[in-house]
Amino acid sequence: MRTVTNYYLLNLAISDATISIFNTGFSWSYNFFYVWIFGSTYCAISNLMGIAPICASVFTMIVMSID
């Protein structure tokens, strides 16, 4: 972790893990049963966790290409 590139790669790994943890399983459940059973609060969080990590990955790759 002594270089800037390693921090960027760690950021990419964390953002990808965030999508896997907070979004994939719950979205799969909704697509399988066609009913959202996790409450309205987690519905908003799940939608945010589907978009924010992707934006973080894109911005990280932009910064890596500039660096």
UniProtKB/TrEMBL annotation:
Pfam families: 7tm_1. The keyword NAD does not apply. The chain crosses the membrane at residues 7-28, 34-63. Keywords: Cell membrane, G-protein coupled receptor, Membrane, Receptor, Transducer, Transmembrane, Transmembrane helix. GO terms for molecular function: tachykinin receptor activity. It comes from the Eukaryota. This is Tachykinin-like peptides receptor 99D.
